[in-house]
Inverse folding.
């Protein structure tokens, strides 16, 4: 792997902001991604143009991240811009992964687990407060918090900020208390699955959209999807892993899985978040488009 | 029509730059758009991700246009960024229409033919020189110029700049000498077809991608496509108009037309440029996404 940019002779080179927006777009143009909005189909209330508008709207927040703004400031602005479409939450989880990765991409050193962990560890209570404020822009599906954490329920938005301050919790601390969440897990593990999936995309062949589709099914076959578990419970989440493992590598079976998931409202959105983050890393490493 | 922004309660409002990028994206997500890369299919060497990367890469040039940079400076930067992908020319013609429209959108007054004509009339010889320089970033299909205009062949790129200066030609003058070209025609007519098509999109119902697909076929049924004429000659261009007129309004016939155009390499790319410009105007006028 190298960190050479995938620039072409005629162009000026894509920077991390452009690669983050392109990752958001490629992930909705890749297909099949069973159960998600993809190039092949919309879902009932959520259409491809909502994701396109979300990717465009996130630009200003991503630019702030690349310019060195605090993670919370950049994230809240990215979510506010992403939300400027009528489909609801499209890319909140993607941005929670992309913002620290963009910060890591503009830092010294290679884009890897150490660099992004340094970004995570640099977060403050103010970043946590901005993270909570971001929930005011859009409805995000989250699991019921345990009773002792009701005060810190993300759905309280800015109302939870005094409790954050009282307990002196940074954004990294907040993520560490949500380890059942697939995206929070990336924050606490040096983005382990993100980099692993980025390597799979990097090492694969063919158009990037095909690589992303294959990596999505592989990921789905390995880890329970948080959004599926939140919406349908742990048994369905475990069943999705099994079904993806059975289908993987067989395009016809994957297409059938996609149709079945759409039919029954199974939307593995957290896996899609991870794939977007991994696509960003793969683009930064030099995968050509 | 109003110029109210299509912002939602949670969001921060899309400005002209965001709407221009969204127009570039919606136009490749709309389908069918017979003979073009769209949501349903790629072409042999040109894939959807090339358009996604082009739309992202164009952002910096579009931001410069919105900030008041000269049309030529903004256009050349947008083309340089658009070209930073391996598919070749994706959106040169779109940007030639979008850059003056973005300038018009940030000017005083409503976004209409008068405002954009004022932008066109403000262009200088320096803008013309930057337009020629933009051809150095990417191969653009153009018709052979008449013998007396060989010195001003756009394919000469920056080499034609001394001839431009000698003849004191502004970018508006250059466009006026290329009136056989569908995009140049917009420059010389106050973007007549752009605004007419924007009104059709605005007045239509349903998701914006469906409106764009219908407006595309309607446009194709009315005007010869410059790119088709350049690549296949005037007889094929006239035949495309007739076939689109026969198919329009019948989804099955439109799908067959699409398949036939893809099969025979008929790519009405100039009509796609016009639709992108019209989509931008419709978004600025308040069509919701």
């Amino acid at each position: 792997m190298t960190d050479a940019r995938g620039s072409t002779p005629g162009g000026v080179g894509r920077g991390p902001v452009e690669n983050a927006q392109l990752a958001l777009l490629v992930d909705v143009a890749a297909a099949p991604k069973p159960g998600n909005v993809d190039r092949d189909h919309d879902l009932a209330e959520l259409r491809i143009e909502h994701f396109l508008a979300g990717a465009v709207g996130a630009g200003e927040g991503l630019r702030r991240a690349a310019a060195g703004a605090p993670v919370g400031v950049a994230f809240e602005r990215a979510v506010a811009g992403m939300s400027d479409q009528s489909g609801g939450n499209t890319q909140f989880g993607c941005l929670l992964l992309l913002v620290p990765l963009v910060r890591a991409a503009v830092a010294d050193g290679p884009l890897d687990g150490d660099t992004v962990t340094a970004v995570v560890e640099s977060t403050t209570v103010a970043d946590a407060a901005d993270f909570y404020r971001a929930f005011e822009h859009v409805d995000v599906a989250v699991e019921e918090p345990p009773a002792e954490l009701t005060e810190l329920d993300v759905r309280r938005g800015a109302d939870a900020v005094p409790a954050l301050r009282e307990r002196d919790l940074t954004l990294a601390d907040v993520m560490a208390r949500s380890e059942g969440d697939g995206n929070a897990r990336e924050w606490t593990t040096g983005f382990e699955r993100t980099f692993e999936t980025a390597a799979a995309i990097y090492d694969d062949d063919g158009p990037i959209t095909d690589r992303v589709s294959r990596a999505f099914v592989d990921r789905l076959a390995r880890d329970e999807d948080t959004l599926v578990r939140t919406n349908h419970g742990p048994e369905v989440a475990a069943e999705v892993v099994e079904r993806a493992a059975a289908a993987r590598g067989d395009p016809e079976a994957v297409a059938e899985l996609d149709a079945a998931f759409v039919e029954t409202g199974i939307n593995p959105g957290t896996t899609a978040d991870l794939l977007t983050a991994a696509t960003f890393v793969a683009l930064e490493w030099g995968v050509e488009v």
